[in-house]
Each structure stands twice: as C-alpha cells, then as structure tokens.
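Dear support,

Our group has been running a series of protein-ligand predictions, and this particular one with adenosine-5'-triphosphate is the one our PI (initials K.S.) wants archived with full inputs and outputs. We had some confusion internally about which version of the output was final, so please treat the block below as the authoritative record. The input we submitted was:
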Amino acid sequence: MKKINPNINYENKVIEIKGLKKAFDDFEVLKGVDLNLYQGENLVVLGRSGTGKSVLIKIISGLLDPDEGMVRVLGQEVNKLKPKQLDQLRLKVGFSFQNSALYDSMTVYENLEFPLIRHAKDMSKGERDRRIHFILDGVGLLQAINQMPSELSGGQRKRIGIARTLILKPEIMLYDEPTAGLDPITCIEINALINDVQERFNTSAIIITHDLTCARSVGDRMVMLLEGQFQRQGTFEEVFNTDDERVKMFYDYNFVY
Ligand SMILES: Nc1ncnc2c1ncn2[C@@H]1O[C@H](COP(=O)(O)OP(=O)(O)OP(=O)(O)O)[C@@H](O)[C@H]1O
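Confirmed final output from the archive:
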C-alpha cells in the first residue's frame, strides 16, 4: 500500500478533462468523463477490457479526437492545437506502450539515443551520452547499455522501454498495462520503478492496469471506468469498499482464483 504522498500539488492540474464523450458508430465508449491529474500524482485508471481506457489515453495524447468535452494537458486544449503545437506538447507526455517496442537491431544505448537525435537536435553527443547514462542508472540498468534487446529479459525490456520514454524528460507519463505479461516478482520490480520514476523525475502519471497489486502499490489515487464513466474514485479502499457487484467482481477476479 502506498503512503500519503506529500509531493502532490493539488493546486496544479496537469491534465483536466470535462464532459468527455467518444463513440464509435453507435457504440458510446466514453459517456461524459471528468478527470483531473494533479502535479506529482500517480493516478491509476482501472476498468475491464473494452471499457475505453486506451481510448482515453489516446485522446489525452491527441491520437484520437473527442466527440465532445474538454481535454486540457499542461494548460493546453489538446484538440485545439495545430499539428506543430501538438508535436511540442507530445514531447512533454511520455507514452509507455504495452509491448515496449524497442528497436531490435539497435543496442540499448542506440535505442535511447534515437529519440534524442530526432527531437533534441541541438544536444551535443556528450550531453546525449550523459543523459543516457543518467536515465539508465535511474532505471537500474546501466550494465545493459551495450546489449541488444534480444539479450534482455521481459522485465529488463520493460525497464528500457520506460527509460526510452523518460529520455526526453516528460512531465507526464502514461503507462499502458505496465505489468502485463510479467511474472509476479518482475511485476513488483516494475511497480517499484514506477514509484521511483515519480520521485526521481518529478513526473505525474496515469497508469492503466487490470492488476490490482500494481494499482495498490503505485496509485496515489484510483478511478474505475464503469459503463463509460468514472463511477468510483479515491484510495484503493474507497474504490473497493462497496456492494456494487461490478466492482466486487473486478476485485474477486484479481484476488480469488
Ligand atoms: N479506432 C477504433 N475504431 C472503432 N472502435 C474502437 C476504436 N478504438 C477502440 N474502439 C472500441 O472502443 C472500445 C474500448 O476500447 P479500448 O481499447 O479503449 O478498451 P480498453 O479498456 O483499453 O481495453 P483493454 O483493457 O482490453 O486494453 C472497444 O470496444 C473497442 O473495440
């Protein structure tokens, strides 16, 4: 269970969402979602498969347009931005995908250098080198710097994927199912890393997960998407202390086999 985090700034909303709606044909996925992410906070978004968690994250990162509602990220309304402004904003929002998607033909070093060459064109080779060492040290994998992704375990690849997202120093991290497909011990390590990233790099984060052990250990707050809306939110206990059968089923699925 996570301790109360004194570093969250509840005066500063880094993401603010109001009345967000999104449908595909006549299937309404998000039916008027309100959500705030505060600076320094790790917010967990829970929900069964197909409830619209990924759609939410895609709208936040400007990959999908909302049908209705307001989505403000770092003070900017995402769907009102011109393509160049959106590109600039995206550099401040790190997206850690489910399958870390490293480039197999590049070493760990080259995987981390690639986004810097592309997006930080003024950075000298020496600065890039220092940044890569700093970030790799931060995720505990400096020793893997010259290895190929194929030589790493699933958990290590996940760490490098997170490192690659961190390399551009994002203010917000979006983690999509960070522990999916990992064994329980590696899950614990990734959960610890997510908390470490929050502390060391001062990031705010949205973590999408089905894994309640992950939710409980990384979430300062959690919200549960049920039938297109956040119907439960608060601490882990506040979310799950309910007679709502839909919520109980979600809990039982995780802890009772
Ligand atoms: N581009 C799209 N076109 C049509 N339907 C879509 C599109 N993207 C998502 N959907 C539908 O929206 C619903 C929510 O999808 P989403 O991927 O957000 O679910 P999820 O909660 O992330 O699920 P999971 O936990 O399985 O990843 C699904 O029914 C999906 O089929």
